[in-house]
Automatic annotation (TrEMBL):
Residues 63-135 form the Transcription elongation factor GreA/GreB C-terminal domain. GO terms for biological process: DNA-templated transcription elongation; regulation of DNA-templated transcription elongation. Pfam families: GreA_GreB (PF01272), Rnk_N (PF14760). The lineage of its organism: Bacteria, Pseudomonadati, Pseudomonadota, Alphaproteobacteria, Caulobacterales. This is Regulator of nucleoside diphosphate kinase. GO terms for molecular function: DNA binding; kinase activity; RNA polymerase binding. It comes from the Bacteria. Residues 15-55 form the Regulator of nucleoside diphosphate kinase N-terminal domain. Keywords: Kinase, Transferase. InterPro entries: GreA/GreB_C_sf, Rnk_N, Tscrpt_elong_fac_GreA/B_C, Tscrpt_elong_fac_GreA/B_fam.
């Protein structure tokens, strides 16, 4: 299954995203190494990395979603959720830590409050999400 974030002629244009060099390098290595069940999400993450504007990590606005960010968002008409975006080994949905190697995690990277994106879920449905708030926090401990 591929995770496309748009379908030509059917979705809104992709939002402009920013990624710091440190995350860019980490996420490229992660996407390259992903296999098995993680491979489709890694392909989607790779597409997001390819279209991102990469900036010096120190110059990245704190309002931009990056690894370790605490993000409040809503998917579709669903309730607002707050999660922390983490590496796969640190993910624990029961504590609100979601992996960058999920469709939602890959969709969130590089967005700012007020931005929206449409992507395809693991179940093959088109889903949009909107970011409401971004806070920076240290990465969750596994």
């Amino acid at each position: 299954m591929t995770y496309l974030n748009t379908r030509p002629g059917r979705s809104a244009p992709l939002p402009h995203i920013l990624i710091g060099w440190d995350d860019f390098e980490t996420l490229n290595r992660l996407a390259d190494a992903a296999t098995g069940d993680l491979a489709p999400a890694a392909q989607y993450l790779r597409r997001e990395l390819d279209r991102a504007a990469v900036v010096a990590t120190m110059k990245l606005n704190p309002a931009v979603v990056r690894l370790g960010s605490v993000v409040s968002y809503a998917a579709g008409k669903g309730a607002e959720r707050t999660v922390q975006l983490v590496l796969p080994g640190e993910a624990d949905i029961s504590t609100g830590c979601i992996s960058i190697l999920t469709p939602v995690g890959a969709a969130l990277i590089g967005l700012r409050a007020g931005q929206s994106i449409t992507f395809t879920t693991a179940q093959g449905r088109q889903q949009s999400l909107e970011v409401f708030r971004v806070d920076q926090a240290p990465l969750a401990k596994a």
